[in-house]
Amino acid sequence: MEQFNRFSVSIDKQLNVFSAEEPFLAYLGLKKLDTLEKIVYPGDLEQLETTVEQLDKDRQEFTCFRIQDKNKNYRWVSAHLEFAETDGEEDAIVINMYDIRNMEEDISESSYDQMTGVLNKQAIIRKAHHLAAKRPYEKFILCVMDIDNFKSVNDVYGHMRGDEVIIDVAHIIREQVGKAGSVGRIGGDEFMILLEHAEDEQSARAYLKEIRLAVEALYAENGDGVHVTVTIGAVLFPDHAHTYEELFMVADKMLYIGKMKGRNRYIIYTPELHGNVLSDDKVANSSYRKTIHNKTKFMMEIGRAHV
Q1: Which residues touch 167 (CB under 8 Å, ≥6 apart)?
Q2: Which of 80, 138, 230, 251 is a Cys-bridge partner for 144, taking CB atoms 3.0 to 4.6 Å apart?
Q3: Would you list the DSSP string of the chain?
Q4: What predicted TM-score, i.e. pTM, was given to this entire model?
């Protein structure tokens, strides 16, 4: 059976196709493709439309959906969307698609964060999409983690010391997770952890506790006065969320709660304790994600200044 690894298509916000690669058309069994509506599984179309509508020029979006191949079979793809300037008046949206079946074999050197050695943002999110789209379901835990009060490390000890802290923390996470999952850097000092072999809250707590303690211990007796801790938010799939978007949203809210409770801790989503956080306006409307966005932008500017 014919397989593919990746291909690109250029569209507008109404899903009309500007251009499609020849190998993609061959895979679809088409000579021409006018709109994605023709090939996307109807049940996935609304989610894709929402993702496209939410896309802006300052960020990228990720999603998963099914497309129909030339044999009329629907296959899952992970999609990375971003704007690309065109010669015309209208901006094109470029969608890079990845065959989820081959994704685990498609981790190359370009998938890793050059500074820390863990997976980069695009690679870890593709991996999370891949895990959430598997059928039948396989349990895993998605975690979002960042370094507490990281800006003060940069302000007091300098950005070079801050970079060293990020690298140290990344190595600790990777060492503690080992072969039990994947680690990626998704922002300046923010990481995503996928625990693929932790199937319940108890096993997740064991990993997260060791990460928290290992980070704290590394700097506990440091002579330069740097004290580093981390806060982690986590959620179980498919018990408490069913898509990547829901997983990230719940884990992120648990991270926010951990920050509000004093930092240096991990919070695993529990319905009995936290309620339906996906509809909790008080948490959903918090300013924490805005803070993270500004912090990430700040760190990217620092990185460019060091080049």
Answers
A1: 115, 116
A2: 251
A3: -----EEEEEE-TT-BEEEE-HHHHHHHT-S---BGGGTB-HHHHHHHHHHHHH--TT--EEEEEEEE-TTS-EEEEEEEEEEE--SSSSPEEEEEEEEGGGGGG---GGGB-TTTSSB-HHHHHHHHHHHHH-SS---EEEEEEEETTHHHHHHHH-HHHHHHHHHHHHHHHHHHHGGGEEEEE-SSSEEEEEETT--SHHHHHHHHHHHHHHHHHHTTT-TT-----EEEEEEEETTS--SHHHHHHHHHHHHHHHHHTTSS-EEE--HHHH--GGG-HHHHT-SHHHHHHHHHHHHHHHHHHH-
A4: 0.66
Tokens of 219: 């700097």
Q: Which two tokens stand for residue 16?
A: 């009309």
pLDDT single digits (tens) 215-230: 999 887 666 678 899 9
Tokens read off for 263: 């930092």
Whether omega before 136 lies within 30 degrees of 0, making that bond cis, reads yes
Active site residues: 189
**Interval 47-63: pLDDT, tens:** 899 889 888 877 777 77
Lowest mean pLDDT across 4-8, 119-123, 171-175, 276-280: 4-8
299 pLDDT more than 50: no
| 8 Å CB contact between 126 and 97 | no
Q: Which amino acid is at 76?
A: W
